[in-house]
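Hi R.,

As promised, here are both runs. First protein below:
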Amino acid sequence: MEKQGNLKLLTKIADFYRDILPVLKKFPKDQRYTLAQRIEERVLSCAEMVYFIAYQKRNRAERLEELRVRLHFLGLLVRLSNEQKFLSDKQYEVFSLRLIEMGRITSKWIQTEFSRKSENAKTSV
Protein backbone atom coordinates (compact mmCIF):
# COMPACT_ATOMS: atom_id res chain seq x y z
CA MET A 1 0.00 0.00 0.00
CA GLU A 2 2.80 2.39 0.87
CA LYS A 3 4.32 2.97 -2.59
CA GLN A 4 1.00 2.56 -4.34
CA GLY A 5 -0.69 4.88 -1.85
CA ASN A 6 1.85 7.66 -2.03
CA LEU A 7 2.01 7.52 -5.83
CA LYS A 8 -1.77 7.65 -6.05
CA LEU A 9 -1.89 10.51 -3.55
CA LEU A 10 0.81 12.46 -5.38
CA THR A 11 -1.10 12.04 -8.63
CA LYS A 12 -4.31 13.28 -7.00
CA ILE A 13 -2.54 16.30 -5.51
CA ALA A 14 -0.85 17.14 -8.82
CA ASP A 15 -4.16 16.86 -10.67
CA PHE A 16 -5.85 19.03 -8.05
CA TYR A 17 -3.12 21.65 -8.38
CA ARG A 18 -3.29 21.59 -12.18
CA ASP A 19 -7.07 22.09 -12.13
CA ILE A 20 -7.33 24.68 -9.37
CA LEU A 21 -4.48 26.91 -10.54
CA PRO A 22 -6.40 28.52 -13.46
CA VAL A 23 -9.34 29.09 -11.12
CA LEU A 24 -7.12 30.78 -8.54
CA LYS A 25 -5.80 33.13 -11.21
CA LYS A 26 -9.36 34.41 -11.68
CA PHE A 27 -9.77 35.39 -8.02
CA PRO A 28 -10.15 39.14 -7.44
CA LYS A 29 -6.77 40.82 -7.38
CA ASP A 30 -6.89 41.58 -3.66
CA GLN A 31 -7.56 37.88 -2.93
CA ARG A 32 -4.99 36.49 -5.36
CA TYR A 33 -2.22 37.39 -2.94
CA THR A 34 -4.02 36.18 0.15
CA LEU A 35 -6.58 33.40 -0.17
CA ALA A 36 -5.54 32.13 -3.61
CA GLN A 37 -1.87 32.18 -2.68
CA ARG A 38 -2.55 30.29 0.53
CA ILE A 39 -4.47 27.61 -1.36
CA GLU A 40 -1.66 27.24 -3.88
CA GLU A 41 0.99 27.06 -1.15
CA ARG A 42 -1.02 24.49 0.83
CA VAL A 43 -1.47 22.22 -2.17
CA LEU A 44 2.25 22.32 -2.91
CA SER A 45 3.13 21.76 0.75
CA CYS A 46 0.89 18.67 0.78
CA ALA A 47 2.76 17.28 -2.24
CA GLU A 48 6.06 18.03 -0.53
CA MET A 49 4.90 16.27 2.62
CA VAL A 50 4.05 13.13 0.66
CA TYR A 51 7.64 12.99 -0.57
CA PHE A 52 9.02 13.42 2.94
CA ILE A 53 6.65 10.80 4.33
CA ALA A 54 7.50 8.35 1.55
CA TYR A 55 11.25 8.64 1.97
CA GLN A 56 11.64 9.14 5.71
CA LYS A 57 10.25 6.29 7.76
CA ARG A 58 10.81 7.92 11.13
CA ASN A 59 7.68 9.59 12.55
CA ARG A 60 5.73 8.57 9.46
CA ALA A 61 2.42 8.10 11.26
CA GLU A 62 2.64 11.53 12.88
CA ARG A 63 3.49 13.17 9.56
CA LEU A 64 0.59 11.42 7.90
CA GLU A 65 -1.69 12.82 10.59
CA GLU A 66 -0.26 16.28 9.89
CA LEU A 67 -0.91 15.78 6.18
CA ARG A 68 -4.50 14.87 6.93
CA VAL A 69 -4.90 18.07 8.96
CA ARG A 70 -3.42 20.12 6.11
CA LEU A 71 -5.87 18.57 3.68
CA HIS A 72 -8.75 19.46 6.03
CA PHE A 73 -7.46 23.02 6.28
CA LEU A 74 -7.23 23.17 2.49
CA GLY A 75 -10.89 22.14 2.44
CA LEU A 76 -11.68 25.08 4.70
CA LEU A 77 -9.90 27.48 2.35
CA VAL A 78 -11.83 26.07 -0.60
CA ARG A 79 -15.09 26.45 1.32
CA LEU A 80 -14.28 30.05 2.20
CA SER A 81 -13.54 30.72 -1.46
CA ASN A 82 -16.96 29.38 -2.36
CA GLU A 83 -18.67 31.44 0.34
CA GLN A 84 -16.98 34.55 -1.05
CA LYS A 85 -18.21 33.52 -4.53
CA PHE A 86 -14.67 33.13 -5.90
CA LEU A 87 -15.57 29.51 -6.68
CA SER A 88 -18.86 28.45 -8.19
CA ASP A 89 -20.94 25.86 -6.36
CA LYS A 90 -20.00 23.28 -9.01
CA GLN A 91 -16.27 24.05 -8.65
CA TYR A 92 -16.62 23.84 -4.88
CA GLU A 93 -18.33 20.47 -5.14
CA VAL A 94 -15.67 19.06 -7.49
CA PHE A 95 -12.72 20.33 -5.46
CA SER A 96 -14.27 19.25 -2.17
CA LEU A 97 -14.90 15.73 -3.41
CA ARG A 98 -11.33 15.50 -4.60
CA LEU A 99 -10.04 16.68 -1.23
CA ILE A 100 -12.22 14.08 0.48
CA GLU A 101 -10.73 11.41 -1.76
CA MET A 102 -7.20 12.56 -0.90
CA GLY A 103 -8.15 12.41 2.76
CA ARG A 104 -9.37 8.84 2.35
CA ILE A 105 -6.14 7.80 0.67
CA THR A 106 -4.20 9.43 3.52
CA SER A 107 -6.37 7.66 6.11
CA LYS A 108 -5.75 4.29 4.46
CA TRP A 109 -2.03 5.01 4.48
CA ILE A 110 -2.25 5.87 8.18
CA GLN A 111 -4.07 2.60 8.87
CA THR A 112 -1.41 0.69 6.97
CA GLU A 113 1.32 2.43 8.94
CA PHE A 114 -0.32 1.68 12.30
CA SER A 115 -0.92 -1.96 11.37
CA ARG A 116 2.73 -2.24 10.32
CA LYS A 117 3.82 -0.77 13.66
CA SER A 118 1.51 -3.18 15.45
CA GLU A 119 2.94 -6.17 13.55
CA ASN A 120 6.51 -5.05 14.27
CA ALA A 121 5.70 -4.72 17.96
CA LYS A 122 4.29 -8.26 18.04
CA THR A 123 7.30 -9.79 16.29
CA SER A 124 9.80 -8.00 18.52
CA VAL A 125 8.19 -9.31 21.72
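And here is the second one, sequence first, then its C-alpha coordinates:
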Amino acid sequence: MKEIQLNHPPSGRILWLTDTYGDHNGVSMVLQSMHKEIVSRNLPIDILVCSHVIQSEPNLLVVKPLTEFSVPFYAQQQIRVPGFFEIKKIFLEGGYDRIVCSTEGPMGMAALYLRKSCHVKAYFYIHTDWLTFAQTAMKMGDPGISGVTHLLRRYYKGYDGLFVLNTDQQEWLTGKSMRIDASRVFLTAHWAEGIFYPRKVLKSDVFGLTEETPVLLYAGRLSTEKGIMELPRIYREVLQFHPGLKMVVTGNGPASEKLKEIFPEAIYTGWIDHDELPNIFSASDLLILPSRFDTFSCVVLEAMNCGLPVIAYNTKGPKDIIRNRVNGFLVSDRQEMSHEIKLFLSDAEVQKSMRQEARERGESYNVRIILEDFLSNVGIIQAV
Protein backbone atom coordinates (compact mmCIF):
# COMPACT_ATOMS: atom_id res chain seq x y z
CA MET A 1 0.00 0.00 0.00
CA LYS A 2 1.21 3.50 -0.78
CA GLU A 3 2.17 5.88 2.00
CA ILE A 4 -0.17 8.84 2.56
CA GLN A 5 0.39 12.05 4.48
CA LEU A 6 -2.13 12.39 7.31
CA ASN A 7 -0.80 15.73 8.53
CA HIS A 8 -2.47 17.62 5.66
CA PRO A 9 -5.84 19.18 6.56
CA PRO A 10 -8.70 16.82 5.61
CA SER A 11 -10.91 17.93 2.72
CA GLY A 12 -14.19 16.45 3.87
CA ARG A 13 -16.21 14.75 6.58
CA ILE A 14 -17.64 11.22 6.55
CA LEU A 15 -20.83 9.79 8.06
CA TRP A 16 -20.33 6.01 8.33
CA LEU A 17 -23.60 4.04 8.49
CA THR A 18 -23.95 0.51 9.88
CA ASP A 19 -26.71 -1.88 10.96
CA THR A 20 -24.48 -3.58 13.52
CA TYR A 21 -22.16 -2.24 16.18
CA GLY A 22 -22.70 -3.74 19.62
CA ASP A 23 -23.51 -7.24 18.37
CA HIS A 24 -21.31 -10.35 18.70
CA ASN A 25 -20.17 -10.61 15.10
CA GLY A 26 -17.11 -9.83 13.02
CA VAL A 27 -18.47 -6.67 11.41
CA SER A 28 -19.29 -5.20 14.81
CA MET A 29 -15.83 -6.00 16.17
CA VAL A 30 -14.18 -4.37 13.14
CA LEU A 31 -16.27 -1.22 13.48
CA GLN A 32 -15.52 -0.96 17.18
CA SER A 33 -11.82 -1.16 16.35
CA MET A 34 -12.31 1.45 13.63
CA HIS A 35 -14.08 3.72 16.12
CA LYS A 36 -11.13 3.56 18.50
CA GLU A 37 -8.80 4.66 15.70
CA ILE A 38 -11.17 7.45 14.65
CA VAL A 39 -11.19 8.85 18.18
CA SER A 40 -7.48 8.42 18.91
CA ARG A 41 -6.40 9.91 15.55
CA ASN A 42 -9.08 12.61 15.46
CA LEU A 43 -10.27 11.49 12.04
CA PRO A 44 -13.13 13.36 10.31
CA ILE A 45 -15.51 10.41 10.61
CA ASP A 46 -18.60 9.72 12.71
CA ILE A 47 -20.18 6.26 12.87
CA LEU A 48 -23.99 6.18 12.94
CA VAL A 49 -25.75 3.10 14.29
CA CYS A 50 -29.40 2.24 14.89
CA SER A 51 -30.02 0.83 18.38
CA HIS A 52 -32.18 0.96 21.51
CA VAL A 53 -29.30 0.02 23.83
CA ILE A 54 -26.07 1.60 22.53
CA GLN A 55 -25.22 5.00 23.97
CA SER A 56 -23.75 7.85 21.95
CA GLU A 57 -20.04 8.60 22.40
CA PRO A 58 -17.57 10.91 20.69
CA ASN A 59 -17.69 10.04 16.96
CA LEU A 60 -20.47 7.51 17.60
CA LEU A 61 -24.03 8.62 16.89
CA VAL A 62 -27.11 6.56 17.74
CA VAL A 63 -30.64 6.74 16.35
CA LYS A 64 -33.52 4.73 17.72
CA PRO A 65 -35.11 2.16 15.39
CA LEU A 66 -38.65 2.69 14.21
CA THR A 67 -39.09 -1.09 14.28
CA GLU A 68 -37.07 -4.27 14.75
CA PHE A 69 -37.50 -7.78 13.38
CA SER A 70 -35.52 -10.86 12.39
CA VAL A 71 -35.52 -13.02 9.27
CA PRO A 72 -35.39 -16.85 9.33
CA PHE A 73 -32.12 -17.22 7.38
CA TYR A 74 -30.28 -14.76 9.65
CA ALA A 75 -32.18 -15.09 12.92
CA GLN A 76 -29.22 -14.26 15.18
CA GLN A 77 -29.08 -10.68 13.84
CA GLN A 78 -31.90 -8.22 14.50
CA ILE A 79 -32.92 -6.01 11.57
CA ARG A 80 -33.36 -2.46 12.86
CA VAL A 81 -35.10 0.12 10.67
CA PRO A 82 -34.16 3.78 11.26
CA GLY A 83 -35.99 6.91 10.20
CA PHE A 84 -34.46 8.06 6.92
CA PHE A 85 -35.51 11.69 7.44
CA GLU A 86 -33.86 11.69 10.87
CA ILE A 87 -30.63 10.40 9.33
CA LYS A 88 -30.80 13.04 6.59
CA LYS A 89 -31.20 15.76 9.22
CA ILE A 90 -28.14 14.46 11.09
CA PHE A 91 -26.19 14.37 7.81
CA LEU A 92 -27.06 17.94 6.85
CA GLU A 93 -26.60 19.45 10.30
CA GLY A 94 -23.33 17.60 10.88
CA GLY A 95 -21.59 19.13 7.89
CA TYR A 96 -20.83 15.77 6.27
CA ASP A 97 -20.10 15.64 2.56
CA ARG A 98 -19.78 11.90 1.87
CA ILE A 99 -21.03 8.55 3.12
CA VAL A 100 -19.52 5.18 3.91
CA CYS A 101 -21.75 2.20 4.68
CA SER A 102 -20.83 -1.24 6.03
CA THR A 103 -24.06 -3.21 5.89
CA GLU A 104 -26.51 -3.97 3.11
CA GLY A 105 -29.66 -3.75 5.26
CA PRO A 106 -31.76 -0.70 6.15
CA MET A 107 -28.66 1.46 6.69
CA GLY A 108 -27.53 0.53 3.18
CA MET A 109 -30.83 1.80 1.84
CA ALA A 110 -30.40 4.95 3.92
CA ALA A 111 -26.93 5.47 2.43
CA LEU A 112 -28.28 5.30 -1.12
CA TYR A 113 -31.13 7.63 -0.14
CA LEU A 114 -28.62 10.19 1.17
CA ARG A 115 -26.49 9.85 -1.93
CA LYS A 116 -29.39 10.69 -4.20
CA SER A 117 -31.20 13.28 -2.09
CA CYS A 118 -28.08 15.17 -0.96
CA HIS A 119 -26.05 14.71 -4.17
CA VAL A 120 -22.97 13.38 -2.38
CA LYS A 121 -20.61 10.48 -2.93
CA ALA A 122 -21.28 7.18 -1.17
CA TYR A 123 -18.91 4.25 -0.66
CA PHE A 124 -19.68 0.72 0.46
CA TYR A 125 -17.36 -1.39 2.62
CA ILE A 126 -18.07 -5.05 1.86
CA HIS A 127 -17.67 -7.28 4.93
CA THR A 128 -19.86 -10.22 3.92
CA ASP A 129 -19.76 -12.54 0.92
CA TRP A 130 -23.51 -12.87 0.44
CA LEU A 131 -23.18 -15.05 -2.63
CA THR A 132 -21.29 -17.71 -0.68
CA PHE A 133 -23.69 -17.25 2.24
CA ALA A 134 -26.62 -17.97 -0.08
CA GLN A 135 -24.91 -21.10 -1.36
CA THR A 136 -23.72 -22.48 1.99
CA ALA A 137 -26.06 -21.26 4.72
CA MET A 138 -29.23 -21.03 2.64
CA LYS A 139 -28.40 -24.01 0.37
CA MET A 140 -29.49 -21.95 -2.62
CA GLY A 141 -28.84 -23.11 -6.18
CA ASP A 142 -29.73 -21.78 -9.62
CA PRO A 143 -31.83 -19.83 -10.45
CA GLY A 144 -31.70 -18.42 -6.90
CA ILE A 145 -27.98 -17.65 -7.09
CA SER A 146 -28.52 -15.82 -10.37
CA GLY A 147 -31.17 -13.72 -8.66
CA VAL A 148 -28.87 -12.90 -5.73
CA THR A 149 -26.09 -11.96 -8.16
CA HIS A 150 -28.44 -9.64 -10.04
CA LEU A 151 -29.58 -7.94 -6.82
CA LEU A 152 -26.01 -7.49 -5.56
CA ARG A 153 -24.91 -6.08 -8.93
CA ARG A 154 -27.67 -3.47 -8.90
CA TYR A 155 -27.05 -2.62 -5.27
CA TYR A 156 -23.26 -2.26 -5.45
CA LYS A 157 -23.43 -0.28 -8.70
CA GLY A 158 -25.41 2.34 -6.79
CA TYR A 159 -22.24 3.37 -4.95
CA ASP A 160 -19.37 5.54 -6.14
CA GLY A 161 -16.80 3.14 -4.74
CA LEU A 162 -16.50 -0.27 -3.11
CA PHE A 163 -13.98 -1.48 -0.54
CA VAL A 164 -13.16 -5.19 -0.57
CA LEU A 165 -11.07 -7.33 1.77
CA ASN A 166 -9.61 -9.94 -0.56
CA THR A 167 -8.36 -10.29 -4.13
CA ASP A 168 -10.99 -12.90 -5.06
CA GLN A 169 -13.78 -10.46 -4.27
CA GLN A 170 -11.98 -7.72 -6.17
CA GLU A 171 -11.77 -9.95 -9.25
CA TRP A 172 -15.41 -11.03 -8.90
CA LEU A 173 -16.72 -7.46 -8.75
CA THR A 174 -14.66 -6.33 -11.75
CA GLY A 175 -15.27 -9.51 -13.77
CA LYS A 176 -17.99 -10.64 -16.18
CA SER A 177 -20.47 -11.51 -13.43
CA MET A 178 -20.69 -8.05 -11.81
CA ARG A 179 -19.09 -5.74 -14.41
CA ILE A 180 -18.08 -2.93 -12.04
CA ASP A 181 -15.34 -0.59 -13.21
CA ALA A 182 -12.00 -1.51 -11.62
CA SER A 183 -11.32 2.15 -10.76
CA ARG A 184 -14.24 2.01 -8.30
CA VAL A 185 -13.10 -1.12 -6.43
CA PHE A 186 -10.47 -0.63 -3.71
CA LEU A 187 -8.60 -3.42 -1.94
CA THR A 188 -8.34 -2.75 1.79
CA ALA A 189 -7.61 -4.77 4.94
CA HIS A 190 -8.20 -5.02 8.65
CA TRP A 191 -5.62 -5.03 11.40
CA ALA A 192 -5.20 -6.54 14.84
CA GLU A 193 -5.54 -4.21 17.81
CA GLY A 194 -2.54 -3.47 20.01
CA ILE A 195 -3.73 -5.89 22.71
CA PHE A 196 -2.83 -8.83 20.46
CA TYR A 197 0.73 -9.92 21.16
CA PRO A 198 2.24 -13.12 22.64
CA ARG A 199 1.50 -13.54 26.35
CA LYS A 200 3.50 -15.60 28.82
CA VAL A 201 0.64 -17.77 30.02
CA LEU A 202 0.35 -21.38 31.11
CA LYS A 203 -2.05 -23.88 29.60
CA SER A 204 -2.89 -24.93 33.15
CA ASP A 205 -4.10 -21.39 33.97
CA VAL A 206 -5.99 -20.83 30.72
CA PHE A 207 -7.40 -24.30 29.96
CA GLY A 208 -6.59 -26.43 33.02
CA LEU A 209 -4.23 -28.59 30.95
CA THR A 210 -0.58 -29.60 31.26
CA GLU A 211 2.02 -27.74 29.21
CA GLU A 212 2.73 -30.92 27.23
CA THR A 213 -0.87 -31.15 25.99
CA PRO A 214 -1.21 -30.10 22.33
CA VAL A 215 -4.13 -27.68 21.92
CA LEU A 216 -6.07 -27.00 18.74
CA LEU A 217 -8.26 -23.91 18.85
CA TYR A 218 -11.38 -22.79 17.05
CA ALA A 219 -12.42 -19.20 17.77
CA GLY A 220 -15.44 -17.56 16.19
CA ARG A 221 -19.17 -17.73 15.67
CA LEU A 222 -20.64 -21.20 16.07
CA SER A 223 -22.77 -21.51 12.96
CA THR A 224 -22.87 -24.20 10.30
CA GLU A 225 -21.60 -21.97 7.47
CA LYS A 226 -18.37 -21.54 9.45
CA GLY A 227 -17.60 -25.22 8.86
CA ILE A 228 -17.62 -26.12 12.55
CA MET A 229 -19.32 -29.46 11.97
CA GLU A 230 -16.04 -30.68 10.47
CA LEU A 231 -14.21 -30.14 13.77
CA PRO A 232 -15.15 -33.51 15.39
CA ARG A 233 -13.79 -35.57 12.48
CA ILE A 234 -10.62 -33.51 12.19
CA TYR A 235 -9.99 -33.84 15.91
CA ARG A 236 -10.62 -37.58 16.02
CA GLU A 237 -8.38 -38.24 13.01
CA VAL A 238 -5.49 -36.30 14.56
CA LEU A 239 -6.15 -37.83 17.99
CA GLN A 240 -5.13 -41.24 16.64
CA PHE A 241 -1.58 -39.93 16.17
CA HIS A 242 -1.51 -37.54 19.15
CA PRO A 243 -3.45 -39.27 21.99
CA GLY A 244 -3.19 -36.34 24.41
CA LEU A 245 -4.69 -33.83 21.95
CA LYS A 246 -7.34 -31.37 23.14
CA MET A 247 -9.65 -29.13 21.13
CA VAL A 248 -10.79 -25.79 22.56
CA VAL A 249 -13.85 -24.10 21.07
CA THR A 250 -14.26 -20.40 21.83
CA GLY A 251 -17.38 -18.47 20.88
CA ASN A 252 -21.10 -19.02 20.63
CA GLY A 253 -23.83 -19.00 18.02
CA PRO A 254 -26.93 -20.78 16.70
CA ALA A 255 -25.14 -24.14 16.28
CA SER A 256 -23.63 -24.25 19.80
CA GLU A 257 -25.87 -26.98 21.20
CA LYS A 258 -25.69 -29.10 18.07
CA LEU A 259 -21.88 -29.00 18.10
CA LYS A 260 -21.73 -29.90 21.79
CA GLU A 261 -23.99 -32.86 21.13
CA ILE A 262 -21.79 -34.35 18.39
CA PHE A 263 -18.48 -33.18 19.85
CA PRO A 264 -18.58 -33.64 23.66
CA GLU A 265 -14.80 -34.16 23.85
CA ALA A 266 -14.08 -30.49 23.18
CA ILE A 267 -13.48 -27.82 25.80
CA TYR A 268 -16.06 -25.04 25.39
CA THR A 269 -15.25 -21.59 26.75
CA GLY A 270 -18.34 -19.78 25.50
CA TRP A 271 -18.06 -16.16 24.44
CA ILE A 272 -14.72 -14.69 25.55
CA ASP A 273 -14.23 -10.98 26.11
CA HIS A 274 -12.08 -9.45 23.38
CA ASP A 275 -9.39 -8.44 25.88
CA GLU A 276 -9.02 -12.07 27.04
CA LEU A 277 -8.52 -13.55 23.58
CA PRO A 278 -4.72 -12.95 23.55
CA ASN A 279 -4.37 -15.39 26.45
CA ILE A 280 -6.42 -18.00 24.57
CA PHE A 281 -4.29 -17.58 21.44
CA SER A 282 -1.00 -17.61 23.36
CA ALA A 283 -1.86 -20.83 25.19
CA SER A 284 -2.85 -22.71 22.00
CA ASP A 285 -0.68 -24.48 19.42
CA LEU A 286 -2.68 -24.07 16.21
CA LEU A 287 -5.81 -22.19 15.16
CA ILE A 288 -8.23 -24.11 12.91
CA LEU A 289 -10.39 -22.16 10.47
CA PRO A 290 -12.73 -24.67 8.75
CA SER A 291 -14.83 -21.96 7.08
CA ARG A 292 -15.03 -21.41 3.32
CA PHE A 293 -17.11 -18.28 3.91
CA ASP A 294 -14.84 -15.57 5.36
CA THR A 295 -14.07 -12.46 3.33
CA PHE A 296 -11.03 -11.64 5.46
CA SER A 297 -11.06 -13.23 8.94
CA CYS A 298 -9.80 -10.91 11.64
CA VAL A 299 -9.25 -13.91 13.90
CA VAL A 300 -6.39 -15.00 11.62
CA LEU A 301 -4.54 -11.71 12.14
CA GLU A 302 -5.30 -11.62 15.85
CA ALA A 303 -3.98 -15.15 16.29
CA MET A 304 -0.88 -14.47 14.21
CA ASN A 305 -0.09 -11.31 16.17
CA CYS A 306 -0.02 -13.55 19.25
CA GLY A 307 2.38 -15.93 17.48
CA LEU A 308 -0.27 -18.58 16.76
CA PRO A 309 -0.07 -20.25 13.31
CA VAL A 310 -3.31 -20.88 11.44
CA ILE A 311 -4.57 -23.73 9.26
CA ALA A 312 -7.40 -22.84 6.88
CA TYR A 313 -8.93 -23.77 3.56
CA ASN A 314 -7.33 -22.19 0.50
CA THR A 315 -10.21 -19.78 -0.05
CA LYS A 316 -10.79 -16.04 -0.31
CA GLY A 317 -9.62 -14.11 2.73
CA PRO A 318 -7.27 -16.56 4.47
CA LYS A 319 -5.26 -17.25 1.31
CA ASP A 320 -4.32 -13.55 1.09
CA ILE A 321 -2.92 -13.64 4.65
CA ILE A 322 -1.49 -17.13 5.20
CA ARG A 323 1.75 -18.18 3.51
CA ASN A 324 1.48 -21.92 3.17
CA ARG A 325 3.90 -23.88 5.37
CA VAL A 326 5.57 -20.62 6.42
CA ASN A 327 3.21 -19.04 8.96
CA GLY A 328 0.41 -21.58 8.65
CA PHE A 329 -1.26 -23.94 6.22
CA LEU A 330 -3.64 -23.61 3.28
CA VAL A 331 -5.39 -26.89 2.47
CA SER A 332 -7.97 -28.10 -0.02
CA ASP A 333 -10.06 -30.52 2.05
CA ARG A 334 -10.63 -32.02 5.48
CA GLN A 335 -8.25 -34.95 4.92
CA GLU A 336 -5.40 -32.62 4.00
CA MET A 337 -6.17 -30.45 7.03
CA SER A 338 -5.92 -33.46 9.35
CA HIS A 339 -2.68 -34.58 7.68
CA GLU A 340 -0.98 -31.20 8.03
CA ILE A 341 -2.01 -30.92 11.69
CA LYS A 342 -0.49 -34.33 12.42
CA LEU A 343 2.83 -33.31 10.87
CA PHE A 344 2.82 -29.89 12.56
CA LEU A 345 2.27 -31.32 16.04
CA SER A 346 5.08 -33.84 15.47
CA ASP A 347 7.80 -31.24 14.77
CA ALA A 348 8.79 -28.81 17.54
CA GLU A 349 11.19 -26.90 15.28
CA VAL A 350 8.49 -26.27 12.69
CA GLN A 351 6.16 -25.04 15.42
CA LYS A 352 8.78 -22.61 16.73
CA SER A 353 9.58 -21.26 13.26
CA MET A 354 5.93 -20.85 12.32
CA ARG A 355 5.16 -18.99 15.53
CA GLN A 356 7.80 -16.39 14.68
CA GLU A 357 6.68 -16.12 11.06
CA ALA A 358 3.04 -15.83 12.10
CA ARG A 359 3.79 -12.91 14.39
CA GLU A 360 5.77 -11.08 11.71
CA ARG A 361 2.98 -11.58 9.18
CA GLY A 362 0.33 -10.29 11.57
CA GLU A 363 2.34 -7.20 12.39
CA SER A 364 2.77 -6.39 8.69
CA TYR A 365 -0.87 -5.22 8.57
CA ASN A 366 -0.11 -1.65 9.64
CA VAL A 367 -3.15 0.29 10.84
CA ARG A 368 -1.76 3.70 9.91
CA ILE A 369 -1.04 2.72 6.31
CA ILE A 370 -4.42 0.97 5.94
CA LEU A 371 -6.30 4.01 7.25
CA GLU A 372 -4.32 6.50 5.18
CA ASP A 373 -4.98 4.46 2.04
CA PHE A 374 -8.69 4.33 2.87
CA LEU A 375 -8.92 8.09 3.44
CA SER A 376 -7.11 8.73 0.17
CA ASN A 377 -9.51 6.49 -1.77
CA VAL A 378 -12.57 8.36 -0.44
CA GLY A 379 -10.92 11.69 -1.23
CA ILE A 380 -10.49 12.93 2.34
CA ILE A 381 -6.71 13.28 1.99
CA GLN A 382 -4.42 13.42 -1.02
CA ALA A 383 -1.81 10.83 -1.95
CA VAL A 384 1.75 12.10 -2.06
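A quick note on the second one: The longest strand covers residues 45-50. Let me know what you think.

Best,
J.
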